[in-house]
Amino acid sequence: MTKSLAIDSRLSATKRYIELVYVLAKREVKVRYRGSFLGVYWSLFNPLMMTGLYAIIFGAAFKKYYHESLWEYMLAAFTGLTVIQFYNASTSQALVSIVSNDSLLNKVKLPISIFPVSTIVANTFQLLIGMLPLLVIVSVFLSPNPSSFINIIAIPIPLLGLILISTGIGFLTSSLFVFFRDLPFLYELVQFVILMGSPTFYPAEIVDPKIRPFLTLNPLYPVIESLRQIVLSGNPPDLTLMIRSLLSGIIILGIGWVCFTWLRPKFMDLL
Fold first, then answer.
1. Please, which residues have CB within 8 angstroms of residue 182's CB and are 6 or more apart in sequence?
2. Alpha carbon of residue 74 to chain centroid
3. At what angle do helices 220-232 and 70-95 cross, to 10 degrees?
4. Neighbour tally for 12: CB within 10 Å
């Protein structure tokens, strides 16, 4: 009987947690795009604009790594920029999510983790509605049957790795921001390093072979390479890249959650 009550209590708490995340994520999306003509599809504007800019500047030099096709280079750049934009937007918003809701936390008893999680969920919704359909369409056109169907099914796997990475970083940065209010300025520098250390607008082949192994230390590297391989190569998914992207996500999520739970008892004293 006691065990049954404990299970019911956990299920009830989980249901309440999911409902709170849903409400906060829905509110965030509505507030962000209130009065907007394109709504969540504005999230496509930045990577599309940057793709065009990179194509103008670097297209002639880098297209040789993509079968001398400027179109393929643009698709590769768009895929990389999609990953970077999601990571930057979701983690930057998650960073301030706890502190920006301090007044609410002081009035209502809520699980603190719902704030970074709801921010990631809101950005995931944008990703699924805005960018995922484009990646699927490109994969269909570039992959011969029947591998196109397999590739479409595989696309969510590196994206899941991306979401897990962003959630882990969100837990880490949002908890540290409670203690270090200068963190956003430092994190802007970190984001720039991640951008330049990820093969977003450039092919990994141009990097010095002695330095290239350091690219693999970037958790976004296997996500970008896996998505490009699935969407652009026309070949069946590379299981090694997909597993690496998932492992990166699981490891970063674990690190972020451990730091978050370790620092959480001290939050309310500083909010």
1. none
2. 20
3. 140
4. 10
In whole angstroms, give the CA distance from residue 167 to residue 261: 14
For the chain, give the DSSP string.
-HHHHHHHHHHHHHHHHHHHHHHHHHHHHHHHTTT-SSGGGGGGHHHHHHHHHHHHHHHHHHGGGGTT-HHHHHHHHHHHHHHHHHHHHHHHHHHTHHHHTHHHHHHS---TTHHHHHHHHHHHHHIIIIIHHHHHHHHHHHS-TTHHHHHHHHTHHHHHHHHHHHHHHHHHHHHHHHH-TTHHHHHHHHHHHHHHTS-SSS-GGGS-TTTHHHHTTSTHHHHHHHHHHHHHS-SPP-HHHHHHHHHHHHHHHHHHHHHHHHHGGGHHHH-
Distance, in Å, from the CA atom of 262 to the CA atom of 232, rounded to the nearest integer, reads: 42
Rounded distance between C-alpha atoms, residue 26 and residue 35, angstroms: 15
As a whole number of angstroms, the distance between CA 167 and CA 160 comes to: 10
**What is the domain partition of the chain in residue ranges?**
2-270
> Which tens digits make up the pLDDT trace of 150-162?
888 888 999 999 9
pTM score, whole prediction: 0.91
Q: Render pLDDT for 168-188 as a digit per residue (tens, 0 to 9).
A: 999 999 999 999 988 999 999
Main-chain phi, psi angles of 28, to 5 degrees? -65, -45
> Residue 22 has which token pair?
């849903």
Distance of CA 95 to CAs 115, 171, 185, Å?
A: 10, 8, 11
Burial label for 139, CB within 10 Å (0-12, 13-18, 19+), is buried
Supply 239's token pair. 């299981």
Cis status, amide bond into 146, omega within 30 of 0: yes
CA distance 152 to 131: 14
